[in-house]
Amino acid sequence: MIKVSKNILILVSIVLLVFIYTYSFAETTEHFLKNTMKVLLIKDSQSPFASFQIWYKVGSKDEPVGKTGISHLLEHMMFKGTEKYGSKEFSNMIQRHGGTDNAFTTKDYTMYFQNISAKNLDIPINLESDRMTNLKLDEKEVISEREVVKEERRLRYEDDPQNKLYEDTIALSLMVSNYRNPIIGWMNDIASIQREDLYEHYKNYYSPENAFIIVAGDIDKDAILKRLDDTFGKIKKDANIKRIKTKEPEQNGERRIILKKEAELPYIFITYHAPNFPHKDSYALEVLSSILSSGKSSRLYKSLVYEKKVALNVFASYSGFYQNPFLFILGGTPNMSFSANDLEKAILDEIRQIKDTLVSENELEKAKNQIESSFILAQDSAHMKALYTGIFEILGDWRMKDRYLEGIRAVKIEDIRYVAKKYLDDDKKTVGILIPTKRDKGDRKE
Amino acid sequence: MTERNNLLGLILLFVLVLTSLTLCNSNLAEAIQYKKTVFSNGLTLLHVERKSIPAVMVNILIEASPLQEPAEMAGLANLTAKTITDGTKTLTSKEINEIVDSMGTSLTTSVSYDYTTISLTTLKKNINRSLDILSKVLLDPSFDNSEIERKKQIIIGSLRQSHEEPSFLINKEFRSIIYGDFPYGRLIEGSSETISKIKREDIIKFYKTYYRPDKSIISVVGDITYDEAVQLIKKYLLSWSSESAPTDKTNKMGVSQINLKGFKIIDRDLTQANIIFGHLGIERQNEDFYAVSVLNYILGGGGFASRLMKTVRDDLGLTYGISSHFTTNKHKGLFSIEVQTKNESAGQVLREILKQIKDIQSNPVSDDELKDAKAFLVGSFPRRFETNRKIADFLPLIEFYRLGDDYIEKYEQYINSVTKEDIMRVAKKYLTQQDYTVVIAGKKELLKDVTPQQ
After folding, report:
1. Is A169 touching B (CB cutoff 8 A)?
2. pTM (2 d.p.)
3. Best mutation target, A43, A46, A97, to test chain B (most B CBs within 10 A)
4. What is the predicted ipTM?
5. How does pLDDT run across B198-223, given as a tens digit for each residue?
6. In what order do the strands lie in the sheet with A23-25?
7. Least C-beta-crowded within 10 Å: which of A219, B80, B180, B295?
8. Contact between residue B46 and residue B395 where contact means Cβ atoms under 8 Å apart
């Protein structure tokens, strides 16, 4: 029994005795299970693998002070077994059928996926519906997995000077927003997370009304829907969703942070506050970041790497694909005879030019083509099609995916200068600089 | 110059297709039906039509690598590949970048220990203009001196930055210990010393000698028919010629060069010990390749299903990730296990690794392990053909490593014929608990019991 969705015009599929009212948009269709859980199905007959994805609307932004990293640790624990399936049996079963499974946690959501041939989709459906409610969270496993995550943190942050600088710069850029915390969590927070904390987090957020499913591939939609209704459709809605509301106050004056750490070369990040999608300015900001740093003909590469040789590498990055406002970020490595300050000046010069002079028609067109091309090229698999669809659903509506390129296409030359002036304001920036400390000199090659 | 080449191409147009065969593969028959064609200049085309997205992927594999460069000019193959896109006789580097970016196309080059690849990704609507640029870059590079100097500086700088990464450090040292002077023992990029020595003439000579159509394979995959692909190659790449066969300066691997044992600690202010353990492995054409694939899956290649992950991560909580690899090349590759753990646990992890190797050499793997490993390797094989890019990258390797035109069809059979006895046999033959090399980057004073027992 599937709940009526939107559009009655495309009411075509009547299967068995179950009425399925379907809203169709491109090859994607939206459905609701009998407990109202949302399902998106994407027919992609080219793909040798199907992708099953379950998206839980919980991420690092939902974490209380002192327990950062709990969403990510819970994601790890989801592989540690239920009463029915022992620890790691889940992954083993998928792999045995030639599939792969994994999961990742972001600021906004936690996503689990299995890529497997369409005829074996029953396996992830059974496994995922089981672990949505029956997770064991064994005490001993929690202790061991906490250590695993601490190792992950050492690997990705403590021992990686650029990532550590990134983490510090973000935390300084955002003083209030719950986006300021790293997804993996601060070391002491990870260490403090207990079984009870995880259980509460799980109970609060892992429930049909706080999740949706996407299945993409060469699938039989009716059969899949029936299976989903028989499994996920029977799960009771009992979430206790708490959303932490934060708002970053206006920044008045530059902030600056220095990290001294063993490294070979300095590094620099510059961040500015920026709105999130679908704010009207987010399209122009995306085009701007492309003009600045997409490809070797982009402004930053051409000027700083190629001509002035002040940078070894340099980037500008903006993504509006967040539920709350985040940042426009620039960064790079100074070339060997230059300092981080030289590179900072050079980057800021480029930003000043964008604010002073309109970009050319050519540059604008080129940036739009690059965005369009990479948007299309990225979606060459069932997994990636589903991923892009899910990202837009997290932002409010998966249908926005099909309108996204229109928004990019509509950006005008004046919009670029407008957003540059509005957001890339010197008094609203945060600068992070890595100063390498050296061991003993002399024994090093290169 | 280019126009003349095109004209030449038109004249030769009708004599060209020497062989053409369709390869049908039982399992992946629908997805991957590739056609193979050899053109009159010796260039081999592999083509698959696939309309998943309106795009075309091209990959050119050229037999030019560190194997062909003199030791004192290590990095020559890489520098040649990295500067080939930096200007032609008619276009400057900036102009090329401008044209490529304006289409949203990507044109990149990379070098591995055995070959160079030039890779093009473009929307279908831009395929002609994209191939035009590719052809100019490949056939008419100017190797301008100022561009070379600029590239050298970037490569040297990036190399230096790479030395921040513990994984880079241990892999570099590991290779260098095991291979010694053999080209696999150095970095593909070379070193700042050798890069500085490379001159424009060296690059031109290397390019003229080794960038040859008869030593190259091109794959064209995506929203494009076979006939379209053939016409495009004729138009843009048929004038690619090579004067004469190169004097073969390819390095051969001498057994005496190879070191059996080594141990090194790289002292760094790190919270984790980054460990690499291993020794010489096998070449791609080794007949035991498939048994070794199954062995490696069970030991440490199978992610969460592998023995190393189960013990070191799941049971002991000592690492975020541990994995084993057999990298197979034209010559013998490496067997390695890589793992990161807090400094204090390094010794314990090393002992666990040796225990697991001993176990898999002394006891047959279980029925379930064998069954699961085969199921994964066979079942996941189609994933190598999941996207146009993956297909375009993979097909030339089938040709380059001479895996056979029926490789895709036969793969399942190769894997399924592996027995438990095979696994124990290859574990004894290609793994060792004695003659191995260990390199650790970590905080020396905190590492305990890591020196191998002699």
Report:
1. no
2. 0.88
3. A46
4. 0.84
5. 999 999 999 999 999 999 999 999 99
6. A23-25, A28-32, A38-43, A211-217, A50-56, A110-116, A100-105
7. B180
8. yes
